[in-house]
Specification:
Layout (H helix, E strand, L loop, with lengths): L1 E6 L2 E4 L4 E9 L1 E12 L6 E6 L5 E3 L7 E6 L4 E6 L8 E11 L6 E4 L3 E6 L1
Parallel strand pairs: 2-11
Antiparallel strand pairs: 1-3, 3-8, 4-5, 4-9, 5-6, 7-8, 9-10, 9-11
Amino acid sequence: QVQLVESGGGLVQAGGSLRLSCAASGSIFSISAMRWYRQAPGKQRELVAFISRSGSTNYADSVKGRFTISRDNAKNTVYLQMNSLKPEDTAVYYCNADVLVLGGSFYRGYWGQGTQVTVSS
């Protein structure tokens, strides 16, 4: 079994910064892609950032140039550095990872519990 535990959410003023982290634990053999999603009330969950095992990244256009995704493979942890935050960044942010468990034969997706990010005007 795999657990993803997020931290770093909170309340910040527009223009400020936050760093989210998500640590995976459990019977993990390998983690391939890791992602951050977000969901605002009444809106679809959207992919914010993607990072491959080797460090290749992609970002949603709305956060490009402001957010940076990174990972520490030794710690099974993914980060999201969020700078120049805007009120429209307010959402619940979710960590996602493709995990091969010990003794497993395929990668499957796991999700964190979500952490609230609120950006005030």
